[in-house]
Amino acid sequence: MSLVAREVKDKRVLKLIRAYLNSGVMINGVVVETDKGCPQGGPLSPLLSNIMLDVLDKELEERNHKFCRYADDNQLYVKTHKAAERVMKSITIFIEDKLKLKVNKRKSAIGRPW
């Protein structure tokens, strides 16, 4: 919430976001508590991902990387497979250590754009 609070100054809005994040999710008609994160597909998911990942966008720009991000899906473009491995490792460390977000290793991959 600290990164969100840097961008959102209205305490009432922060209170609403916090309440939403702590409200749980409904599974088969039963409300289940969530321990952290934003429910997948929730209405605040795009907004919160843009707030949280703006820092990543700036880092990638500073490193002169070519990239495209839509919500929490990110593609980085490099010239070689070796560069891709190096960038994947360093950006994963940045996301997990600096932003305190978890990278889903099963959904993260190095591939070719065609």
TrEMBL record:
Record InterPro entries: DNA/RNA_pol_sf, GrpII_Intron_Splice-Mob/Def, RT_dom
UniProt domain Reverse transcriptase: residue ranges: 1-114
Coiled coil: none
One Pfam family recorded for the sequence: RVT_1
PANTHER family reported in the protein's UniProt record: NUCLEAR INTRON MATURASE 1, MITOCHONDRIAL-RELATED (PTHR34047), PROTEIN YKFC (PTHR34047:SF8)
Protein name: Reverse transcriptase domain-containing protein
Organism the protein comes from: marine sediment metagenome
